[in-house]
Amino acid sequence: MVNCKLDKKTMDEKTLKTLDFPKILEQIASFTTFRPAAELALSLRPLTDSAEILRRHALIQEGMRYLSKVPQAGIGEAHDIYSVIDLAEHEGTATPLELLDVKKTLVAARSLLRAFGRLHLDYPNLSELVSTIEVPTDLIETISLALSDHGEILDSASPALGAIRSELRMVRERLLSRLQQMISDPAILSLLQEPLITQREGRYVIPIRTECKGRIPAIVHDQSASGATLFVEPLNVVELNNQHRQLQLEERDEERRVLFRLSKMIAANAPILKNCLSVLAQFDLVLSCAKYALKLNAVQPRMLPFSSNEQPNRSPYIFQLIQARHPLLDPQKVVPIDVELTHEAFALVITGPNTGGKTVTLKTVGLLCLMAQTGLPIPVKSATLSIFENIFADIGDEQSIEQSLSTFSGHIRNIIRILQCATPKSLVLLDELGAGTDPQEGSALARAILSYLVERRIPCLITTHHPELKVFAHVTPGTMNASVEFDIETLQPTYHLLIGLPGRSNAIAIAQRLGLPEEIIQKARNNLTANELESQDLLEEIQRYRELTRQAYQQAELHRQEAEKLHQELNAHLEKIESQRMQILENTQKEAEQLLSEVKDEIRKLRKEYIRSDQPSETLQRVADRLEELDQWVKKQTLEEKRKKRVIPKAQLLKPGDRVRLRSLGVRGTLTRINGEQVEVQVGALRIQSNLYDLLSDEEKETQLSREELPSTHFPKPKETPSWELDLRGLRVEEALETIDRYLDSALFAGLPFVRLIHGKGSGRLRQAIRAHLRNHPHILSFEAGEEQEGGEGVTIVKLS
Fold first, then answer.
1. Of 714, 703, 711, 671, which Cα lies nearest the Cα of 690?
2. Which residues contact residue 297 at a Cβ distance below 8 angstroms, ignoring those fewer than 6 apart?
3. Which residue has the higher pLDDT, 599 or 386?
4. Residue 170 vs residues 4, 130, 152, 288, 346: alpha-carbon distances, Å
5. Quick check: pTM over 0.70?
6. Cα separation of 218 and 235, whole Å?
7. pLDDT at residue 138, as a whole number
8. Exposure on the CB side of residue 300, measured as CA atoms within 13 A
9. At how many degrees (to 10) do helices 50-69 and 358-374 cross?
10. CA distance linking residue 592 with residue 379, whole number of Å
């Protein structure tokens, strides 16, 4: 056979057009924001280098993640400045607006560079791409110094321009001032058509009536359309007008020099600017591909190098597409398909009625493979794809009037070209193989072509109406039948692809449903052989059972998903309970620690009281003994580990396999793992992480620390901490003093450093009685009146020992 003339490194361009790949690129280009990115999008082609394919996929996946966090992400105010760079390189002068476009593009690039300088850990591939940007900051600053945001050339553009404009303003002011004096002169005012100053040919003039010509020594520059007005330049301002005009010309020339100087800077930085534009275009293209993928709800396929038969641990699939959708069809109407080729069944023969979806299946497979090798996510639930060296497709009408080719001849010529170039690492898609000619010869030719592909182990998908190919696919190793489903009841295709079953033409059944006379239907059946009738009935029975199986599978899958959802909800609920349990235990532990601390403080205070007692009685001695016992008990409890303040199981060794009970959840399970104090318990289908001290052996009764574990003493419950202040207003002196004594006892016992007694000002009798009483109290260090904001003499602040 003649050698292939195609470049092995590039995909077949004819196939790209046949499978509508350019339409995908046009949709991606519609998401770009400036022309260089759109041109890149339209120039995308499928790749065969696995490393580059994976790099593209990684970039677009990062782009999708970036857009999900920053939906308005883009390249800012970047412009296509290639024409400006080219003009500058040819020693042309850019306009102020073109220079502003250069500045905006560089500012956008600088912003992008700074943004991804902080995001390199989250988006390593995008950051690597953006990091190649070089921004000539001196060019940005020079343009900013020379041009306003509206493109006006500023005085600061050059010292010479600043000086010229300063002088120009001064001359203009003198010129306008002299003309204003003239038009305000009553003697001249009567000669004017209007009292105003205007310009003609760049010179300032005044309008006089035509009949007054010669009344003012002046040069005539223009006349109105009606002839009633002459625009004249008085001779006494000619010199100033000359100076003004000369300075205007100098200003124009200096502005041109400024723009030319900036253009030369652009030419000097041309390589940097072109690289900047290139990176911006690539970044914009990545975001455009990501936007298109998000629109399609597409996912990244698993891409694999094409493996050989001898390669160990190879994937069983050449490709596998689950719930694949054609990206150019309406997503609300398209029916997803599952299709696969394996290394054992690498040729798929698809049969079925017209308009049933055979051609769409070929185009879907081919187009998704092209997209995946371009680095694009594809609209599937999941996908595994080999990286093909080339993809060939013969689909559609190949008739050519110009070349005098029939449809059949056009197909054969294309198939010859495909067979010359296809290899075991190619994918071949042939639609309606053997059609367009005599059925018998067409069938023989189709079987021969299919046999040629199978013998060379070339992966292929073929659609046909020839029944002989169904038999060939059934008996030939490496091939498999498939069919598109058709609903006899509705006479409509379902577009489902059934792998493993050949399709039926359904011609007689369709004709019967459409009302063809029964006599003709019966004669048609009689013309079929017994084997043909039996095989059709058997095929119909197989398809019926297959449909029942598919429905049962869908129902089982639905139940599985519901069970999975319930499982996840239960796990989340248990995690929440465990979190709440740990929080409660932590809070309880903190409260216990606080209580123990308070008890210890009370012990210290009571011991201090005991020591200060001059003559200890037997009762005080007994209290001291009991306090000592309590102190020892507190110390003992404090030395215990924090988690051991909970209930501890019996002093028996628990081991994996023991039945245990979780106190916190109140459930039973099997102990599966012990790691120090951390344990894992199997409860039904769930594995629960807990603490060793949360476990009880299944036969063990729960015990709790009780008051019997305390030392045998009738120690009173700790009193509540009293308030920092006591309000005595309205009480008689005797009542107030008695209340103060009780309050101070409580405050001293609680360890308060000071208290605030509120007695009011009034006549001062209650205040004096209280302070006299406080002077004799043994445990009061000092007392004083409150600050003005605290109540002044109406309050006494008491410091306790």
1. 671
2. 331, 379
3. 386
4. 80, 50, 20, 55, 89
5. no
6. 5
7. 94
8. 19
9. 90
10. 59
